[in-house]
Design a protein that fits this description.
Layout lengths: L1 H10 L2 H12 L4 E3 H10 L11 H14 L3 E4 L4 E4 L4
Antiparallel strand pairs: 1-3, 2-3
Helix pairs in contact: 3-4
Length: about 90
């Protein structure tokens, strides 16, 4: 129950909604770390506890996306995809 609530909160944040849409529109069904960093930069998104570094922003997005079961993360390719939620 709590996990579903967390997912609902995270998925309704504007940044995550836009990232999900970006993944859906991607050719391969995933976006790379560079894609996420560019997205964050272009949309002037800041994340809590990030020191302004690109890796901090990316790691924050990946961690919350994974915890809320929104994203899967492939460390080898440094890419995220949408996690199916059942």
């Amino acid at each position: 129950m709590q996990l579903a609530l967390l997912r609902d909160v995270v998925i309704n944040l504007e940044a995550f909604r836009k990232l999900v849409e970006l993944v859906k529109q991607s050719e391969k069904g995933r976006i790379t770390k560079d894609d996420v960093i560019q997205f964050v930069s272009n949309h002037d998104i800041t994340t809590p506890n990030a020191n302004g570094g690109d890796s901090d922003e990316f790691n924050w997005i990946v961690e919350w996306g994974r915890q809320a079961l929104v994203f899967n993360y492939d460390a080898n390719e440094e890419s995220i995809s949408i996690r199916s939620f059942r």
